[in-house]
Design brief:
Keywords: Phosphoprotein. By secondary structure, the protein is an alpha/beta fold. 30% of the residues lie in helices and 31% in strands. The chain is built from 8 helices and 17 strands. The longest helix is centred in the middle third of the chain and has 15 residues. The chain is elongated, with a radius of gyration of 20 Å.
């Protein structure tokens, strides 16, 4: 069995690789790739894979962007720490959907299912994938212009221009205004990414999406990372990873 792991977190990638080798000692790990770009380049070389484990949120964007450029000729298992993508993942008719942290027994179920369906799964999956991608490529609606939030017993509309950044604290996503007011919103950061104008908002990391105008200072950090100071000040340290830093710089220069 030849397997590709698409995962931008080193610990998660190493854990999945070790679990696979424990459960299937004969498995061949073709590569471990952290970005959309590297995955597209790898798949375009037609590596003859059997199974691909896809982390949905990668360093340079959603894994679904891979499918806009190349259709993998293999069964697909989506992995993520967030279950908001579950419906979309199954719409793509994936082999399975694993929620992190991945358990050994749950992974074993996936491998067993793959062995049972490997002769018949790939073709219908690819057909369904192409169909869903075609629908996703239809003209999109306008980006969100305001949010309705709760302020005590009242509902309050917040214009998008008032939003400094969004951040996740535990399982709750908050909206922070330039005036320093904080409100919870009923969206995941992944959902917000598709609602916000990418010219004005950027996903800094797994916890934070910022408005361009909320950037106070940007500092070089160790190992190519960046440390971001926001306004109003964030309650937690905001770090941009080494992999994501080049995209962030491109965005700052208006190239994304």
């Amino acid at each position: 069995m030849k397997v590709l792991i698409v995962e931008d977190e080193q610990v998660a990638a190493r854990t999945l690789k070790n679990l696979l080798l424990q459960l299937e000692p004969q498995v061949e790990i073709a590569a471990v790739l952290p970005t959309v770009k590297k995955t597209v380049d790898f798949l375009q070389a037609d590596p003859q894979l059997d199974l691909i484990f896809f982390d949905i949120h990668l360093a340079d964007g959603s894994a679904f962007k891979v499918f806009e450029q190349v259709i993998p000729q293999a069964a697909i298992v989506f992995t993520t720490a967030f279950d908001a993508y579950a419906v979309k993942a199954f719409e793509l008719n994936s082999l399975d959907y694993l929620l992190k942290p991945i358990r050994s027994d749950r992974l074993q179920q996936t491998l067993t299912r793959f062995k049972q369906q490997r002769e018949t799964f790939t073709a219908p999956m690819l057909h369904k994938l192409e169909s869903v991608l075609n629908s996703l490529q239809q003209p999109q609606e306008k980006y969100k212009s305001r949010f309705l939030v709760k302020a005590g017993s009242k509902l309050l509309p917040i214009e998008i221009g008032q939003v400094a950044y969004f951040y996740r604290d535990e399982e709750v996503v908050h909206l922070m205004t330039f005036g320093g007011r904080r409100y919870s919103v009923n969206y995941s950061l992944e959902e917000l990414e598709s609602m916000l104008d990418p010219k004005s908002f950027f996903r800094l990391n797994r916890q934070t999406i910022t408005n361009f105008h909320a950037l106070a200072e940007i500092h070089s950090y160790f190992k190519g990372k960046l440390k971001i100071e926001l306004k109003p000040a964030a309650s937690q340290e905001v770090i941009v990873s080494q992999e994501r830093a080049p995209m962030f710089k491109e965005w700052l220069e208006g190239e994304r």
